[in-house]
Q: What sequence folds into this?
């Protein structure tokens, strides 16, 4: 294992923000990951797990404890079964499955980060979520001190959530297993309206896998959601807020606020989200509350390509970012009575 002290963490995050860690350890095998975690637990040392750093907001003061970079490698593809080590680059893994002619995660192309983070957040985009293809998660259970295999049914997956996210100090994901589909080179049915429109097909139709992946990559790039060190719109965590899920009563009150603010006949985005619940669009809320693309005058601003991304224009601090996030949250609540929830994990800070 590589070990550094007073090590900068900002370069390990897509925001490029945050202070140093007291100690930074890089583990390249499952055994090294477990060893580092056990050592931290035995000495009551605070532990921060870092994969691709695409979902982290680290405070300017940094992290007092051990930051553990999970850099494990390993891809096993057997028929339609895929196993990924936690440290594998997610975008590379998606590309490999498309090259192998397997469907199920092709619309998750371009999402930054590591494979081990995908079950934690139940990563999803463009009509797909990893929960629909994950069969098992292999994790180190810090409670029992053992490596466990957790089947999909026990992962408590829901929208951008899981058992691992609800109990973040218990499990360390080591490997993730997926079951994909061999559809003779075709994608899974296209579920997302924008993707179907660009592809020129109806929702539910299949298209060649490469076409699905390339279309998603183009759509993401157009919104600043594909990492590019030269493009400050990608110095972000992607979508900073989750889409609100409202009860019938909350949605009725929300519609009334929309009508009051924007006029009769204006209908907010609404998508089924389980019995008695409706999901609406955080991006729409942000835009209609007056926070348009490029909003801001400081070093942290809303992306010029997508209202849902908060960005570091190159000289921001974490406090600059949080000030902007708080302004957006307060503005949306004042306009529509909905409190947005941040998607990235905050370390040493909060909204």
A:
């Amino acid at each position: 294992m590589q070990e550094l002290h007073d090590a900068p963490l900002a370069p390990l995050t897509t925001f490029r923000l945050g202070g140093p860690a007291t100690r930074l350890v890089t583990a390249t095998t499952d055994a090294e990951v477990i060893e580092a975690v056990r050592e931290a637990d035995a000495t009551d040392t605070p532990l921060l797990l870092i994969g691709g750093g695409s979902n982290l907001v680290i405070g300017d003061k940094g992290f007092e404890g051990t930051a553990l970079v999970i850099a494990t490698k390993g891809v096993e593809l057997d028929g339609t079964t895929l196993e990924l080590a936690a440290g594998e680059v997610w975008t590379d893994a998606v590309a490999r499955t498309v090259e192998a002619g397997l469907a199920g995660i092709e619309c998750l192309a371009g999402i930054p980060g590591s494979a081990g983070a995908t079950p934690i957040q139940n990563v999803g985009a463009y009509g797909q979520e990893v929960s629909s293809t994950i069969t098992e998660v292999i994790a180190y259970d810090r409670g029992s001190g053992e490596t466990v295999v957790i089947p999909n049914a026990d992962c408590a997956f829901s929208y951008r959530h899981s058992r691992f996210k609800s109990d973040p100090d218990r499990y360390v994901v080591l490997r993730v297993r997926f079951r994909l589909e061999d559809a003779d080179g075709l994608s899974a049915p296209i579920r997302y309206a924008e993707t179907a429109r660009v592809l020129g097909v109806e929702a539910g139709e299949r298209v060649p896998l490469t076409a699905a992946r390339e279309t998603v990559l183009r759509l993401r790039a157009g919104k600043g959601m594909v990492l590019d060190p030269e493009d400050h719109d990608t110095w972000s965590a992607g979508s900073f807020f989750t889409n609100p899920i409202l009860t019938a009563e909350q949605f009725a009150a929300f519609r009334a606020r929309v009508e009051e603010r924007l006029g009769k006949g204006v209908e907010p985005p609404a998508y089924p989200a389980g019995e008695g619940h409706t999901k609406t669009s955080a991006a729409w809320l942000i835009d209609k509350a007056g926070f348009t693309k490029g909003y801001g005058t400081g070093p942290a601003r809303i992306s010029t390509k997508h209202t849902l991304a908060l960005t570091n224009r190159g000289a921001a601090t974490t406090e600059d970012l949080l000030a902007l996030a708080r302004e957006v949250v307060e503005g949306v609540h004042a306009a529509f009575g909905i409190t947005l929830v941040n998607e990235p994990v905050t370390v040493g800070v909060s909204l």
In short: The chain has three domains: 2-70, 75-222, 232-347. The CA atoms of residues 299 and 313 lie 5 Å apart. The chain has a mean pLDDT of 97. The two ends are 34 Å apart (CA to CA).
